[in-house]
Amino acid sequence: MATVFVNIGSNLGNRRLNLSRAMRAINAEFGDFEMSHVVETDPWGFASPHPFLNVGIAFSTDRTPREVLSALQGIEKSIDGRSHRDISGGYADRTVDIDIVAIDREVIDEEDLKVPHPHLRERRFFLEPMCELAAGWRDPESGMTPMEMLAQLSQDNKE
């Protein structure tokens, strides 16, 4: 069994309801999970007047990473039904976005599946939930804990 860490975000419509719908679908698909507090942030990587609500969850599964990705993409599409990219390929507002943040200490580098998430160390809304859900987890690439990455991010943003 592997532990999968996921981030769910929403910045359109009833954001809390959108997070709840995604979590209910994940529960139906994978079973029980642990949940972090909700983090509100400005959009990352694009400009929008709509702030995001994000929540981290962790669940155990014996499915392959590819099977997990497929299931999560199906949930995302069933709730939102559209891409979270604009016509030029950039980020856009969205009803729900579900990202795999990490799977245990696995490293996967495929075109459509990168674990840990390639922007993990740059996103407070990934790191704060990881601090709650897996304080002792270490990034297999940097060796840092979520708290160490969050402290580094805070330090980098002060400069």
Describe the structure.
With 159 residues, the chain is α+β, with helices and mostly antiparallel strands. The chain has a single domain, classed as 7,8-Dihydro-6-hydroxymethylpterin-pyrophosphokinase HPPK (Alpha-Beta Plaits, 2-Layer Sandwich), CATH 3.30.70. The strands form two sheets. It has a four-stranded antiparallel β-sheet, sandwiched between helices. Strands 5-6 form a two-stranded antiparallel sheet. The N and C termini lie far apart (41 Å). The protein is built from four helices and six strands.
CATH topology: Alpha-Beta Plaits
Low-confidence stretches: none
What kind of assembly state do the chains in view correspond to? single chain
Tell me about the biggest sheet?
A: 4 strands, antiparallel
Distance from N terminus to C terminus (CA atoms, Å) equals 41 Å
Précis, in short:
The protein has 159 residues and is of the alpha+beta class. It has helices spanning 15-30, 65-79, 124-133, 146-158, and strands at 2-10, 34-41, 52-61, 97-103, 108-110, 113-115.
Describe the secondary structure blueprint for this structure.
Blueprint: E1 2-10, H1 15-30, E2 34-41, E3 52-61, H2 65-79, E4 97-103, E5 108-110, E6 113-115, H3 124-133, H4 146-158
Features:
alpha+beta; 159 residues; 4-stranded antiparallel β-sheet; globular; two-stranded antiparallel sheet; 4 helices; Alpha-Beta Plaits; 6 strands
